[in-house]
Amino acid sequence: MLHIIGLGLNEKGISIEGKETLKKCKKVYLENYTVEFPYKLEKLEKIINKKIISLDRTQVESEKLVIEAKEKNICLLVYGCPLFATTHISLIEDCKKNKVKYKIIYASSVFDAIAESGLQLYKFGKIASMPTWEKNFTPDSFLDFVKENKSINAHSLILIDIGLSFKDALNQLIKGSKNKKFKLNNVLVCSQLGFKSKFYYNSINKLKKKKIKTPFCFVIPGKLHFLEEEVLEKFT
Amino acid sequence: MLHIIGLGLNEKGISIEGKETLKKCKKVYLENYTVEFPYKLEKLEKIINKKIISLDRTQVESEKLVIEAKEKNICLLVYGCPLFATTHISLIEDCKKNKVKYKIIYASSVFDAIAESGLQLYKFGKIASMPTWEKNFTPDSFLDFVKENKSINAHSLILIDIGLSFKDALNQLIKGSKNKKFKLNNVLVCSQLGFKSKFYYNSINKLKKKKIKTPFCFVIPGKLHFLEEEVLEKFT
User: Which of B16, B89, B111 sits opposite A111 (nearest CB)?
Assistant: First the structure.
């Protein structure tokens, strides 16, 4: 059986059900390529009392896990919410196809923890992802989502590619906005959500001077309710 | 200190951090008015090994909790994600105002568990809530959100008021759609998400014949990717 287990946002974010399930797993794998962990993996190993085997994208996307799960209880640990990434949905489909039992064990996502900013989760639109730009490849379609969300007054969460520094991500946001003729007002930066959550709400120029720890994400607010505005202003 | 602790979606959905924190709390309160629990509270009491005191809306919204938290460690348990409801954000603001320490301990939300339907979480728009209709009060503004989301091809999650049966909720959806001139195609119904998750994807007429357990929610899909469609079709 394959157990896909969410880790939540800090080293003690896994649920009781998740921890209990781990006990019966012969192998404990970790999806280790879509997020930068805010804590040391050794710390997690101590808490769950299991040796963790890190997997890269090709290993998770191969059928290896599903085949192994035919014969024994194994699990795949995923930072945050276990099914945010499309890859993990495909794993479930592979299980169904191969008649392998599976179970999803949920935990909190970055999206849950954004609520601490005071922005109402109900009012978020589609979630965008900012990839790392290369010399001749500078995709800025994440701003199309922001524009669409703005058109219905929704807030936009922009997730940031693993490895991208705050300085570089901010530069990509500025350049992308210029290309797309998108006016950037105050931006909310959320750092280490649910681990040591910190929020910064300011103009791009003021944000440039901040030192912000990874992982972090951006939120481009849509229309603000006055209660939302009140809370955000405390983060300037 | 006030600890606002998410319970996740089943009786073992609380995080290790949450369970550890409970040990030091003198009083354990529960927000018990925005959701219908899919399990017995006695079961939860056994698992966390604490007596739970249920609170209604006025008790959570009064300053009672914050004042009590000045003097001792107490906690408020919240089903799912601890900050989904606006009320709980206000509690944090009250803490700040009264210089009372607080901590949020996250857990999974209904929104995280919807991913098991195969719909991509990235593509959801604003979240709507369907209230219970009364004789002379039949608000259908939840469909305005759906229309807005449709305009940007986003999926719409409609949360359902506590106490509303599946039959009544479906009727409200049908009547509301007529009023708003909104064409209802196939609807996804998600029942007992993250507890004993079940999905139904069908036309309104076919859904009418289904017996669906509470709690449940609706999803009105936006533009479907073929991979999403493939998974949804298995729920017809």
Answer: B111
